[in-house]
Amino acid sequence: MLLRMTAKLLLTILLALTLLWMAASESHAQIYFGKNKVQYTRFDWQDMTTDHFRVYFYTEEAELAQTAARLAEDSYRVLAARFRNEIKNKVPLIIYSSPSYFSQTNVIPGILPESVGGFTEFLKGRVVVPFNGSYADFAHVIRHEMVHVFMLSRLDAATERYSRIKFAFPPLWFTEGLAEYWSKDWDTEADMIVGDMIVNGRLFTIPNLQAIRGTFFMYKLGESILHFIDSTYGPDKISRLFDNWHKSKRFEEIVEITLGDDLKTISDKWEYFLKKKYYPQFDKAGLPEMESEKLTNDGYSINAVPIRWDDGHGEKDWIIFKANRMGYSGIYMKPAVKSKRGIKTLLKGERSSDFESLHLTRSDIDASSDGLIVFASKSKEKDVVYLYDLNKRSVTRRVEFENLIMISSPRLSPSGDRVVFSGVGKDGYKDIYVLNFETGDYRSITDDHYYDAAPDFSCDGRSIVFVSDRCEFGPQGATNLYRIDLATGALTQLTFGLFNDRSPDCTPAGVFFSSDRAGFYNLFLLDHDDNLKQYSNLVAGAINPRLSPDGTKLVYAGYQNLQFQIYQMDLADDAQTVNQPKPTAPAVWVPEKIEREYSSSSIKYDSDYSFDIAQSAVGYDPVYGSIGGIQAAISDILGNRAVHFLLTNTAETKDELLESFNFGLTYINREKRLNWGVGAFHLYDEYFNDYDQYYTERQAGAMLLISYPISKFHRVALTTVSRYSDKRRNYGFTRREAFLTTHYLSLVFDNSLWDFTGPLEGRRYNFTVGVTTSIDNDLDVRNFNRLAIADIRHYFRIAKYSAFANRMFAYTSAGLEPQRIYFGGSWSFRGFDRRHFFNRNVLFASNELRFPLIDNLVIGFPIGPLGFRGIRGALFYDTGSAWDDDFDQFYGSFGAGIRLALGGVVVLRFDFSRTTDYVKISDNTDFDFFFGWNF
Amino acid sequence: MIRKSLSLALAILFLVLLVTGGCTRRYRLSDEARAIPSTWPQHRGEPASLGAAQEGNFNGKLSILWEESSNDKPAGPLSLAHGTLVYAGTKRKVKFYNAADGSYQGKIKVKGVSQTGMAVNDTLGLVALAPPKSRVMCLNLKNGSEVWRYPLRDATAGSIIVKDRLIMSSVDGRVSAWVITTGELLWDLVSESSLSAPPSYGYEKIFQPTDRGGLLAISPDDGSVLYEVDVAGPIVSAIAVSKFLYGADVYGNAFAIDPKDGHVIWKRSLNGQVWGAPAVADDRVIVCHTGGKVAALDASVGTPLWEFEAREVITSAPTIAGRYVVVGTMAGKVISLDAADGQVVETRDLNEPIAIAPVTDGDRVYVATQKGSIICFGENNAPFKTRR
Questions:
Q1: How many Å apart are CA A741 and CA A771, to the nearest integer?
Q2: Is B100 inside any structural domain?
Q3: Residue B55's pLDDT is what?
Q4: What pLDDT is attached to residue B39?
Q5: Chain A interface test: which of B71, B72, B87, B90 (most A C-beta within 10 Å)
Q6: How much is the pLDDT for A23?
Q7: Domain containing residue B357: CATH number
Q8: Model confidence over B162-202: pLDDT tens digits?
Q9: From A254, which residue of chain B is nearest by alpha-carbon distance?
Q10: pLDDT tens, A549-578?
Q11: How many helices (H) and strands (E) does chain A have?
């Protein structure tokens, strides 16, 4: 939390640091802390204009841009017909050749979670999508985002046409459900999620979808609802909803006008429809928990490898797996058989730049009986391959690849001297590579435009089995298994058909893999005689099969009750043999590109600036008086460069109107790793603090802002402000004029993991030093003031939603005009007023036990339900002191509190505390109500 | 004293001018105008006025005779009555423009958003209002007063006048008939299906398509169902009545039905959703679909004759004026095609989406855009004013 500072530089610093915040990363973190979005890569941007798009791409993905343009235009034609609407302005489409590059985009300021596969930014209508190697996925995400664009356009048209200011906005489940429904066919993944909810009695009905708002579950349920409406009420009805949008200000009423049923009735009918569809599945299929032994219970566990490794304590059979158990992804191990030994954590991801992301759902891991574990992780700009040695309990090898950006699913060769993996280069194509551990050399096994993934060495190490979309139905998103001979390069297709075959595991019995060829994802074996056998028949899904070392069990990730967990099943002797279709056409296809006559390119990206925001406001503060003004910001289409403008006036009488203008103009550049900004300002206002009492100050000058992110978690920031300062105290009538230059240098670290109300695990620290000098010869002291801040916060996880938080804070300032700070209140020293202390030296520590009270509370009000997520409790003890020249004594406070998260930045804080001077404890209990996150 | 009187007089004069001026001008049907026949469409069905003006001097050229800004957006179909273009807008008014020169004739406040446009019968204007107003109203065009009103939930986009009665259908599955002059409800048929398409008339029957893909033939006298036929997918646009009954569904199936007994004569797939009614020109049926194509089929057997690719979404019905087909696209183009072979005669880019079907009196074609512009195309042989 920011501390209240009433120094002479208050407005200047706030302005400067606010802009730095905009150049920094997480939208919910303050300028003080926060993780960083690092522009590791320098992109040479170009643009291409087609009939309906302006496509922005960089040199390495020029070929991909042609395909993106074609997919976009195809989507446009289909969706224009569906929405019965045309979009006049060209849609900006920004593409990235890999998710890793996509995460560096400046189109939106916040850090993108890895699960985000693309987005549409509503301010300027920009569509930003990454390419993950699969053209089917690329087509899907482009069309998904275009549905958002069309929907907004259609709603805009309705608003304008009927001159309405207030309009119903569709709920998120409808928006995302429609985007999913109109961008692809109903698929196995959707079946898995919806089917699991129905058969396990976990379905969220339409009135309750708010509880899963924003989750992937909501996407799939929304898709299912739209699918139901289309098939039950008619194919014209979804489009009719937009025709009728003007007839009511409530979405529920628009639905009822269009479909004839209210949402509750539709929900009931939909649920019935789903039950009729999925309940018959139980006739032949089962559930993972009932058919297999469940090995994990918490979080989200996936990618398990069974190994036989002697730990020296009697345990030999282990499961190594990757999971997200406590909010971070990590690599864990546990005994394969029931044991008193619990789950051990081998590696924690997302805490340091070495293991920035373990790619929980995108990348498999592997392990050998020698105790070696191989996995891929994002480390700053690129992914690297790591080798972890169980015998040493540490990472022993790290391999980075010069030309590869992303690495996934590394697998060890039987001899352990090589690793095969799928890699993505700058051009975005996903191919198979083999790394020789001894020499460190690596070479590509495939090199083409097809999506090649999930490789595994054959048992003799002479060939590689992998998944690819180079098959007949590849353009439709199908993936089959292939084998490539390492010596000759001969390629053989092993499986066929319009299916998703994935995660091959080569064993002496044949190749185990998961496939949706029987409906849901289940486990299959292709034996050495090319016979295909089905080993599981589960409702919802089973993926990532791995044969146990003794060859009697199959370990897999099963989906049930909204999560993946690790299961183990006995290999049945009577596995069902299934037929598989043979190919009907040569499996060679090329992604279509935009025709030349419909596109034109420019070599250099033309940075169109447009408004981000333009607003005016009027405010009044009981201490500082009234203020009114305008602010505006413009930025280029890529979000790399921005200009912020502020104009306010703080005059209290007309005589002081001209001299009371406050003006600020700042330019921010985030194009490269070093983010920088320059600005100019003029500020004038009346201020108050307990030391100077009322005073006016005029400041005019310029500033320089620099922020250099060392990694996602570390950054160094420098702010330099030079200005003329004219300070006049109202009482005493003293006046001080000076030309001042201030430098602030900060080192910030933040790897905290957040709950609804604040950090729960990790560390944050901020070390800042600053010096202000005067060049005015009238002043005796050149060191106008100096300050140092040390703010160190640790969060020790106790349980899933519980933590012990500790904060150590030290502040000091000295000089001719030291900067004093206010201290106290809910954000710092509880039990004391927010402005209780006002000094230039502060020493403070805070200790807090955070624990959950209620996870989800919904209260039904007459106007509608109001939900509260994450009601948390706290027990705290604060201690500290503040002084100017002579240290007085320490004070303390202790108490309890409740935190109520209302969503986003709004967290309500209720604190009950008592103070002490360490001689006696106060008689009264102080109650404080405020807002803001925990420290 | 004189100055005060002069000031007062000027103020009164100003108010009078304001009231009688364009901004608050009320439409009043004059006796001279009343004598001019209505041309579009009194009811959809009789070949002479099914929306395909067979006769006229329109030469296919899209010369702009006049254009006006309505300061409103179209809320329902246009109509041509008594020499005026009747324009129902989203600002709860119906505006009237002289069809010959576009001069503004005035407005009538209807206190709701029209869904059906205004059907004009002699001195009466009939309009249905969208929810939440949900009613059908009859207004006296001579003095603007309300003659009668009747609750009607969510009417389909169009109404027809058959002899002395007004026929309308509504989304909740009702087809209703009222006496035009009194508003007496003559009959009220409730179908099992919801309805999205407006009714048509011909062969002394009312034809009402349904959302279930059926077609009801209804007696205009008592509302009884004469026959019902299942044709295709949901039909959301009106039936065109000529030699046969012609329609199309949202799946893009065009069909022809024998009006006597409902027997399906032919059916053709067009590979695109059809939201606008077909139009009939001599021996061919013209259908537009959202895929951006205009297709001509042989009216007798449904054989495809020609297809024009507009490459822009067409959501409204085509209009036939003389030998030409005029369509408007959602990207803002007006395209005139030769009905014989689909060749483009002329294209005009208005840059404003067109979702309402153009209307014609045979000599001129009138287009209303979604931004509120009204443009008259035709031969340059009459006084006109133009701003573009």
A1: 8
A2: yes
A3: 66
A4: 62
A5: B90
A6: 34
A7: 2.130.10.10
A8: 888 899 999 989 999 999 999 999 999 999 899 999 999 88
A9: B131
A10: 999 999 999 999 999 999 999 998 878 888
A11: 11, 50
List chain A residues with CB under 8 Å of B236: 236, 240
Asked if ipTM goes beyond 0.85, one says yes
pLDDT tens, residue by residue, A703-748: 999 999 999 999 999 999 999 999 999 887 788 888 999 999 999 9
Q: What is the largest CA-CA distance in chain A?
A: 99
Q: Which residue range forms the structural domain that includes residue B252?
A: 23-44+57-378
B172 reaches A (C-beta below 8 A) = yes
- A30 at interface of B, judged by CB pairs closer than 8 A: no
Residue among B250, B272, B353 minimizing CB distance to A236: B250
Q: Hey, of B330, B350, B354, B371, which one would you mutate to test binding to chain A, going by the most A CBs within 10 A of its CB?
A: B330
Distance from CA of A81 to the nearest CA of B (A): 5
**Domains (ranges, CATH) in chain A?**
45-283 (1.10.390.10), 294-571 (2.120.10.30), 752-904 (2.40.160.50)
User: What distances in angstroms separate CA A345 from CA A553, A712, B41, B185, B269, one per listed residue?
Assistant: 24, 23, 78, 79, 62
**Hey, is the C-beta of B134 within 8 angstroms of any chain A C-beta?**
no
B296: its two tokens: 């001509």
Neighbouring-strand partners of residue B154 = none
Higher-confidence residue of A620 and B2: namely A620
Structural domain includes residue B384: no
Do B250 and A157 count as a contact with CB atoms less than 8 A apart?
A: no
| Element spanning A679, H or E | strand A675-689
Residue B388 counted as domain residue = no
Q: Where are the alpha helices (DSSP H) in A351-417?
A: none
Flag if B154 and A257 touch (Cβ within 8 Å). yes
CA–CA gap between residue A378 and residue A382 (Å, rounded): 6
The answer to whether A858 faces chain B, any CB pair under 8 Å, is no
Global pTM?
0.90
Instruction: Please state the domain count of chain B.
Output: 1
Q: Rounded distance, CA A797 to CA A74, Å? A: 50
Contacts of A167 in chain B (CB under 8 A): none
Interface check B251 vs A, CB under 8 A? yes
CB A192 within 8 A of CB A559: yes
Beta bridge partners of A753: A761
Burial class (CB in 10 A: 0-12, 13-18, 19+), B103: middle
* pLDDT (tens digit per residue) in A114-143: 989 999 998 889 999 999 999 999 999 999
pLDDT digit string (tens) for B122-151? 889 999 998 888 999 999 999 889 999 999
Which token pair is A603?
């070599």
Give me the pLDDT at residue A110, please.
Answer: 87
Chain A closest CA to B112's CA: distance in Å? 11
- The predicted model gives A771-798 an average pLDDT of 84
What own/partner pairs with CB < 8 Å and gap ≥ 24 does A322-328 have?
Answer: A322/A358, A322/A360, A322/A365, A322/A375, A323/A296, A323/A298, A323/A299, A323/A360, A324/A299, A324/A300, A324/A360, A325/A298, A325/A299, A325/A300, A325/A301, A326/A299, A326/A761, A326/A797, A326/A800, A327/A753, A327/A760, A327/A761, A328/A753, A328/A761
CB contact under 8 A, B313 and A85: yes
**Burial (Cβ within 10 Å: 0-12, 13-18, ≥19) of residue A845:** middle
> How many whole angstroms separate alpha carbon A782 and alpha carbon A795?
41
Q: DSSP for A283-326?
A: GT-B-HHHHSEE---SSEEEEEEEEE---SSS--EEEEEEEESS
A257 at interface of B, judged by CB pairs closer than 8 A: yes
| pLDDT at residue A527 is higher than 60 | yes
pLDDT at A813: 95
Chains A and B: how many Cβ contacts under 8 Å?
80
Q: Is residue B10 part of a domain?
A: no
